[in-house]
Amino acid sequence: MSDFETLVTDELDALPDEMIDGLENLIFVCEDAPENGESLFGLYEGVALTDRGQYGFGELPDRIIIFRQAHIAACATLEDLRAEVHTTLVHEIAHFYGIDDAQLHELGWA
Questions:
Q1: Regarding beta strands 62-67 and 42-45, do their DSSP bridges make them parallel or antiparallel, or are they unpaired?
Q2: Which DSSP string corresponds to 97-109?
Q3: Nearest to 109, CA basis, from 82, 75, 80, 84
Q4: Which backbone phi and psi does 6 adopt, to 5 degrees?
Q5: Mean pLDDT, to the nearest integer, of 11-18?
Q6: Can you give the pTM of this predicted structure?
Q7: How far apart are CA 33 and CA 7, in angstroms?
Q8: C-alpha atoms less than 13 angstroms from C-alpha of 97 in its C-beta half-sphere
Q9: CA-to-CA distance for 26 and 64, rounded, in angstroms?
Q10: What is the three-class DSSP state of 30?
Q11: Fewer beta carbons within 10 Å, N or C terminal of the chain?
Q12: DSSP code of 64?
């Protein structure tokens, strides 16, 4: 496991139980950068909890991808990196729960 993956895992472990307990059929992945060249900190791939109809056995897991290069480029210190990873995790988990970018801006997480 890389140092960045360890940092992401530590920040995920530090999130409140109320945020984590509802996560199901979801995996977290660290990648260097998006394949399409976009500059993103993270990406949620899946069907938000609020949009799921029949969802059950046999479904591939949703994914939250945390992109290393964007975080490293934007952060000058380890403390900044931890804070940005934390914000990205909260932002992408919010998408899992069906909270869109407009709501995230209102809440101060976008």
A1: antiparallel
A2: TT--HHHHHHHT-
A3: 84
A4: -65, -45
A5: 94
A6: 0.89
A7: 17
A8: 15
A9: 7
A10: strand
A11: N
A12: E
The two counts, helices (H) then strands (E), for the chain are 5, 3
Tell me the pLDDT tens digit for each residue of 33-73. 999 989 999 999 998 988 877 655 667 899 999 999 999 99
Using CA of residue 28, residue 30, residue 35, residue 37, what is the dihedral sign?
positive
Distance CA 107, CA 69 (A): 26
Minimal CA–CA distance to 42: which of 71, 20, 14?
Answer: 71
Place of tokens 């992109």: 67
Residue of 43, 39, 93 lying closest to 71 (CA atoms) = 39
List the one residue out of 34, 1, 27 whose CA is nearest residue 93. Answer: 27
For residue 71, which amino acid is it? H
Amino acid identity of 15? L
